[in-house]
Structures are given as structure tokens and as C-alpha cells.
Amino acid sequence: MRKVKKLRLDHDHTEGWRSLSLNSEGTERMATGAPASERGDAVGTEDPASRFQVQKHSWDGLRNIIHGSRKNSGLIVNKAPHDFQFVQKTDESGPHSHRLYYLGMPYGSRENSLLYSEIPRKVRKEALLLLSWKQMLDHFQATPHHGVYSREEELLRERKRLGVFGITSYDFHSESGLFLFQASNSLFHCRDGGKNGFMVSPMKPLEIKTQCTGPRMDPKICPADPAFFSFINNNDLWVANIETGEERRLTFCHRGSPSVLDDPRSAGVATFVIQEEFDRFTGYWWCPAASGEGPEGFKTLRILYEEVDESEVEIIHVPSPALEERKTDSYRYPRTGSKNPKIALKLAEFQTDSQGKIVATQEKELAQPFSTLFPRVEYIARAGWTRDGKYAWAMFLDRPQQRLQLVLLPPALFIPATEDEQERVALARAVPRNVQPHVVYEEVTDVWINVHDIFYPFPQSEGEGELCFLRANECKTGFCHLYKVTAILKPGGYDWSEPFSPGEDEFKCPIKEEIALTSGEWEVLARHGSKIWVNEETKLVYFQGTKDTPLEHHLYVVSYESAGEIVRLTTPGFSHSCSMSQNFDMFISHYSSVGTPPCVHVYKLSGPDDDPLHKQPRFWASMMEAASCPPDYVPPEIFHFHTRSDVRLYGMIYKPHAVQPGKKHPTVLFVYGGPQVQLVNNSFKGIKYLRLNTLASLGYAVVVIDGRGSCQRGLRFEGALKNQMGQVEIEDQVEGLQFVAEKYGFVDLSRVAIHGWSYGGFLSLMGLIHKPQVFKVAIAGAPVTVWMAYDTGYTERYMDVPENNQLGYEAGSVALHVEKLPNEPNRLLILHGFLDENVHFFHTNFLVSQLIRAGKPYQLQIYPNERHSIRCPESGEHYEVTLLHFLQEYL
Fold first, then answer.
1. Range of the domain at 97
2. Catalytic site residue 836?
């Protein structure tokens, strides 16, 4: 037993992360023994004669190998179309039933573009119809000059993990045929369909001029009047008229200072934690219906937005010698246990006349302060409007992320914002007493809540005191399933001008009915942008899930009126990602398997109209056929095994391409191991994980295992990490290695490397710390090395706040256990991007400081111009060559 050294993180606003020091205060921890090299737990040995020796190459030779694999990968590189929009053609006599819009990368192009295809009404059964990808835009370059993005766009690309250039998203208004998109650091629009008919040749998009300085981010078309669109400029919300060019600033949170310290407020902008940890990339939402339309043509348009005050959130500075024009990048970054931003929901309203001129604007706030009405809300996870515009809605999450509330907010609950207290009280008193928030649904768990988008409110009848909706819930059974819920909107009687203190269940609505539409030990896909499609005419809901196997995603359909049979619409043996047409007669599947590269097919649902549940998918046309694999590509083999605690786990192995009988091959364990991610599934791996095939081609065995903590296996399976990150994952990985060594005779357990990035980098370090007798070398990319230095949203979800879980934080912080690392050189390689604004370079800096203090050997590779993900092709090549060189020399 020895004293635990309590963490103290000091931060200097001029030098960034200054130090992480240790003092002798705090509780005690158990010493777990000396490093393996001192305990005698040396890495096991095999008979040298039975060892397969990987051929050693020069640095240039390894570069040539990487060049060759990349050249071959060009044959199968993922340029698949995505972000589909179906538009049905009304001319029954015409040859085409739909025009399909999407983003894609045409052959010979290096950037994403806006494309379309025509879907024929009739096809020949015996023929494979390959749809033409047609350019919508004429000779249009969407990527900024020299590929230089604004800082805001660059950071958004990081949060969205975007690797492609060109047009990466667009907004579409189907009735008018209006498209709106960002390109070349500006905004553009074009029209196709609608009242003007369909184009037959590419068009030149029109740039939308502006008086604003700086980029216009997050552009959206007003659904109630497509003459207007909105955007964010310098952390405030603006609207503009496409036809007249009029621009109007709606919020005045930001003062325009370049200093992060002096200008902490924003409107309509999702903060770093909300984007990175909750997958919400916007901070404002248009009301779909206009109000107050009169005979003179005046109408009111509304936008719900989040106002954020980050004045109490820490600032970090990331210095960079490579960024000459800005010596440091400054960010607001809430570390675990520290203060999050203050948040509020507000309304921005503006009134227009018959000519489309903005005649008045108004900012509105809730009749009582947001923090008074909802004192336990820490995060606004999602928000939006019901389709009739009668209610705004929001998903509120508490700080432990164990209680989520789905709340309706009537627009009448918002009053004009004013600094005059007497005026505010008078305005609040004028709010009708029966106007109130409604908590229509609540989810509670002792694990954590995985936030998702699936909430489908049905239209309300006039005067109806109920709300019926579809919702996916993981907390009830531990598996994510669909429910049809009816909540009674219980009227209250509040005087909003009086002081208010809400009770525990204030505003909570009785649940009249909750019907499970799906059930079982499998999951409806809800996270990471997954959707459902609801056909109100046939009472069917289409969704994606893992009913057949956790290794494959499929499209299913079930009735929400008479829940029962669930029908699968996609072909087994592949994993699918699907999009339904707006009138539910067609769907698109982007699918693949471990042995089949991706292809994209269009299917038509056909069958009797009196039995819509059992309509069968018929192949209709192809948008992209599977490319031929490179001659040296060998797909991995998927396996499963049961751990000593009888948990079924899945893995995959890339066999060495030249297995010699009786020979043992060096083995690389590629690992992620954290929540929200599944590596092992029946989808093609030859693009994203091409380097694993390259390793196999050189004679390595490569093993990948999804242990406890990975997703798609239910909340309890993922929740095995709760409060103990880094303490359960390695055991699963080691058991998996032992299994493959027994199953496949070529795995050399005396020569195992562990390698991963981000959470995988963290686990690579954990493996070498706790199992140095198993792992000969560790290669850790961008690792979290001390959880006290990571953000609130992620760390507290899985580890609680530090004061509630001090032992868990310490046990999971690799930088505090460097004394257990081996003393032999060439067993540890650390890689990190110097500009990383997610897992800051501080983590590697602190780890290296601790290694030096402990006298431990290590190697370090820094990428000065990279962030959390390596983007630059030259950096990517260098990383891969470094990996191969380290393995051939030291494994």
C-alpha cells in the first residue's frame, strides 16, 4: 500500500496546458507490482526454427509497398453516392418515375458534387440497369482554392470526420426545387424540379452575395417560405432573402472580438462537446409553419435556437509553429468535473410583408429563466418542431446522462426579451395560465443514455389533448427498441410572473399507452444519424436493425397499428445502409460484406396494396456495382468465442498471405475497444482498414476483437465499462488472442503487437502496462493518458465526475502507471498530431514527462500539422511506413 498522489491540473491561459502535477494528498491505492522486466514476466519465447521471419525492407522499400497498396485501393476506393433525395415525377406518361438527387464523386473527380439520376418506370427483368450519374452543376469547383478552409469549416470537418472535399452537405426544399449548399468558402443555390420543371443539362449555381465578414455556416432553407434562408456568422444567427438579397441579423450575442476570452456567448451554434460527444452539429431549428398570415400578406416566421454562455468554461491554447498567421489556436474546452456552458432555448421571430421584406424582428425568451424551469438540465441533446409548428420540442439530459426528458414547448411560453424587470413581469403575467411545458416522455437508467434522433410525433387534431409519437428507447430492456407512445397533455395553471420552483416531476405528463413495436436481444439502429421512415397511410414504420445478427444491419418494416410480425427487406449475408423514398415505394441500399466491396442498388417494393407489410423488394437498378478487389486483397475471417465468464465475443483475423506449415507468424492486435464503436461486422474492410491487409501481405497475422464495451450488443454489454475504463477491455482482448492461437496454428503469442488510435491508443498503452508478458510492443496513436484532462460530455458519461470515482479515474489513467511499463527499449511507440483539439497533445506531453521521470524508454512520432485524425496524404503515408518499420524491426 502506498499513498495515492492526487491529481492537480494547472492551466495557464497564455501557454496552454502548463502542467499536471502530483501531490501526496488523497486516498490510498494498492500497488500492483513492479514492471514485467523486473518481475521476470518476460515475453514468452518460441523455438526460433518455428518462427516466420518477416522480410525486412528499407524505408524506401516500405514506402513503395504503401504506394502499391494505395494504388490498388484506388480500384475500390469508396466513392459511393449518399444523402439521397427522391422526387416523384407527376407525368404518368413519362419514362421516369423519380429523379434521385445525391452527393457523390464521379469517375475521374477528386471532389464530391451534387448529382442526379433518373429512375425508369419500367425495367427489363433480364437486364442489369446501371443508372447514369449526371452532373447538376456545370464546371463547378466546390473545394476552396488550394484546399484551405476557414477555421470554422476545418473544425466542423474534424467533428464530422469528413475526409472528402467538395460539397459535403446540402439543404433541399422539395416543393420549390431549391438547393442550398456551402462551397469554396461561400454559399450557392440552384433550382431543379418544382414549378419550373426539371433541367436537362448542367446548370451554373448562383453564389449568394453577402455583406458579412467571415464564413456563413450551417445554412438552412426556411421550410415555411423558401425565399428565406438562415445561417450562422460570427456566432450569431442571420436570415436572408435569396430573391431580394436582404440580410438581417437576428441575434446579438457575439460582440465581434477575435478573443475567445472576451466573447464567450453565441446563438445557434453547437458547442465542441455537443458536436463531438452528442453528434449534434446545429444549434437552431426552423418552425415548419408560418403564423399570423393575414390578407395583407404579413406573416411571422420563427426559429428556435440555443443560446450559450461559455464565460465559465476553461480556455486552452494549442501552440503551433506551423501556423504562422496565428501562433496559437484557442478553444473553450470543459474538462471533466469543471463547468459546462450555461444554456437556454430562445425564439427568434421576424415578420415579413407581401413583398418578402422583413419589417420587424424580435428575440423571445421563456417566461421564466431556462435554468429555473429546468434546473437539472445540463445538455440540450436534440431539438426541433412538431410538423404543424404547434410545439417546439427538445430532449433534455442531466449531467450524469442517466435521465432524459422529451419536452414540448408551446411558442406562447416565450415572451419578448427585455432588460426591464417590471416589463418582463408584465409580459410573463400575460402568458395564459394553461400555457406550460409538457414532459411527454422520460428515460432513466443506471448505466448511461445513448442519445439518438428517433422521435416521430404524429399530427394532432384540433383541440386534442394528447400527443402520439414513435420513440426508440434503450433503457427499458437494455436493447434499443421502437415504442408507440401516447401522452396526455395535462393542463396546468401557472402564473409565470410569480417566483417559481419546479418539483421533481413538474410538467410530467401521464402516459396513456406505450406499445412495444419491436423486442428481443437485438437493436433498432438509432445512433449516428440512423433514421426511421413512417408511412401514415399504411401505418407502417421502416427501420434498420440487427434482428438477424449483430454483425449485419438490415432494413425491416413493422406495423405500428397492430404490432407483431417484423419483415426483413434486405438480403442476408451483407450489411446494409438504406434510404427510403418519400412515398415508400422504393429504397436504396448501400451494402457490402467482408468479401464483397460496396455496391449501391435501388429496389422497388411491389405486392398487393391490401397487404403493404408483405410487399416484396424487387431489384430495380444499380447505382454502383462492386469493384474488383486488388489481386493481393484477402478478406478477413470472422470468428466468435466465449470468454471464461461465458460472454460471446466476435472477432476477425487477417491471415498471413503466405502461411507456411508449422511456422508461427508475428501478430498485430488492432484495437479500439471503447463505446459507440463496432469494428467486427460483415461489411467490407478493404478501404478504411486497408493497412491491415497490407500487414497480412507482409506475413503478419492481424486480429481484431470487439470486447465488452463495444456497441450493437445492448446497453449492459456496452455498460461493462461504467466507471472502469481500461480495466476490463484488455482481458477480453487477451482471451481472444488465446482463442485464435488455439484455433489457428500460425499465431505466435511470443510476438504480439497491440496498436490502435484514440481510445485504441489508450488501450494499447493499457495492454503494455498490464500485460507486458503478452504484448511485446505497443503502438499508441493519439491516446488519452489521463482522464482528468478529457472533456465533460464523454468522460462523465462513462466515468462519472472525478470526485465520485477517484479510484476509477486513477486506475484508468495510463500516465499514472508508467512505472509498470517495461524497461527494455523499442517496445513503445507513441504517435500524435500536434494540433489535436480533441485529445490534446497535452496527453502525450504529460505521458512523456512521466516516462522521463520514471526513466522509461519510448519512441515518439509527432505530426506537426495534424489534428486528431491524420488528413494530409503525406502524413498518412509517413504514419503507415513508420508503423511497418517499427514492427519489422522490433516485433
1. 83-207
2. yes
